[in-house]
Amino acid sequence: MNDSTLLENYSRAPVRFVAGEGCELIDENGRRYLDAIAGIAVCALGHAHPGIAEAVARQARRLVHASNLYYHEPSGELAAELTERSGFARAFFCNSGTEANEAAIKLARKAAYRRGERERTTILAFTGGFHGRTLGALAATANPEYKVGFEPLPGGFAWAPFNDVGAIDAAIDERTAACIVEPVQGESGVHPARTDFLNELRRLCSERGALLIFDEVQCGMGRLGDLFAFESVGVRPDVVTMAKALGNGLPIGAMLVDAAYAEALQPGDHGSTFGGSPVSAAAALAHLRIRDALDLDTHVRAVGRYAFERLSELALSFPSYFDAPRGRGLLLGLPVREPYRAAEILGAARDRGVLLGLVGGNTLRIAPPLIITSEEIDRLLEAIRAIAAGMGALAAK
Ligand SMILES: Cc1ncc(COP(=O)(O)O)c(C=O)c1O
């Protein structure tokens, strides 16, 4: 195999995976890795889940594509499931998180336009937020590092400090079409939004006529211990965007819209050739049924609590290396005091057969398949503990 003609826009590790099973990935030499990052918060039910494989195969034999100019069974059924479970009125399907956010940005602006509020175009986002790589979603992303060399980006975006309750009053005005926020920021280093911050955001958006968009691309689909992150944080937005885990690895994104804004996008306003394709939608439907049967939310809350406690102990054992963990459910971050050590631990963990993520420059991200067991959490923690001990830190207590 030769990978040398792939565009080098990722810093790929020198490992080639050929298969997966449960929480493990298997490389070309047959070596097994505990995947504690789940393909970046994607494979909630683990790898090669037989129920997903069967749903995909069955749908592929029946109908792969028919376009969005017609109805087809899986997307309508998936929209019905998601709206019923969320209480939102309508669903739009696309292929990724960035596209779901593009749709939400366009919907917010069009909703204001249809009301005759032509000046209401600003999308307010927050420092540390990450919303994707297409130009619109990138424009909403605060971190300038992602934007270098891609300017000019679309205008009409503004930012306020994340979790700063006092700052949002001045930031939301009659020009604000929408506020977009992650209930738990992922890429910035796993930072949960404060409840008082989200409550105040909700209050001000309602008072001033701006839509509240929750970007649940990373933290949704059960990762916080409820199907939707808005349920976990107890604040209801007007629009929810999702992707990543929705199809358990099949590419599908979604935007769920409250009844008040369901008419904002009319035929011709927005679309996607592949969005909600029968095979991806069938995978998402199977995902919903399997997670129900497993009572995955109860499992995530229990294992998430266990993982958080174990991570807290680990951080206390090596205070010169780690700060206290952050996160909720199974979206957890372990901050490493020195960024270079975080990269070292990431590589050393991979050498020991454990895959982690690295976000926010210095934070180890743990976003495993939601089916992970407490024994697998122990395996992960033991790997980090052994690496830290080997780094010559203060002896583990
Ligand atoms: C919160 C959030 N929004 C949007 C995106 C973009 O999703 P995608 O890579 O599917 O376009 C990501 C990806 O990491 C994300 O974490």
Global morphology:
globular
Quantity of strands, as a count: 17
What is the CATH topology classification name of the largest domain? Aspartate Aminotransferase, domain 2
- Note the beta-strand portion: 15-25%
Oligomer: single chain
Any idea how many domains?
2
> In CATH, what is the homologous superfamily of the largest domain?
Type I PLP-dependent aspartate aminotransferase-like (Major domain)
Q: In CATH terms, what is the architecture of the largest domain?
A: 3-Layer(aba) Sandwich
Radius of gyration: 21 Å
According to CATH, what is the class of the largest domain? Alpha Beta
Rounded average pLDDT: 96
Report the bound ligands by name, code or SMILES: pyridoxal-5'-phosphate
Distance between the termini: 46 Å
Short summary:
37% of the residues lie in helices and 17% in strands.
Provide tags for this entry:
397 residues, binds pyridoxal-5'-phosphate, alpha/beta, 12 helices, Aspartate Aminotransferase, domain 2, seven-stranded mixed beta sheet, Aspartate Aminotransferase, domain 1
Description:
This protein has 397 residues and is α/β, with parallel strands linked by helices. It has two domains: 50-293, Type I PLP-dependent aspartate aminotransferase-like (Major domain) (Aspartate Aminotransferase, domain 2, 3-Layer(aba) Sandwich), CATH 3.40.640; 295-390, Aspartate Aminotransferase, domain 1 (Alpha-Beta Complex). The chain is built from twelve helices and 17 strands. The protein has helices spanning 38-41, 50-62, 73-86, 97-114, 135-140, 168-171, 195-208, 229-233, 278-294, 296-317, 339-351, 374-390, and strands spanning 17-21, 24-27, 32-35, 90-94, 122-126, 157-160, 176-181, 184-185, 191-192, 211-215, 239-242, 253-257, 326-328, 331-335, 354-355, 357-359, 363-366. Strands 4-12-11-10-7-5-6 form a seven-stranded mixed β-sheet, sandwiched between helices. Strand 1 (17-21) and strand 2 (24-27) form a beta hairpin. Helix 10 packs parallel to helix 12 (374-390). It is globular. The model is unreliable at 393-397 (pLDDT under 50). The structure holds pyridoxal-5'-phosphate.
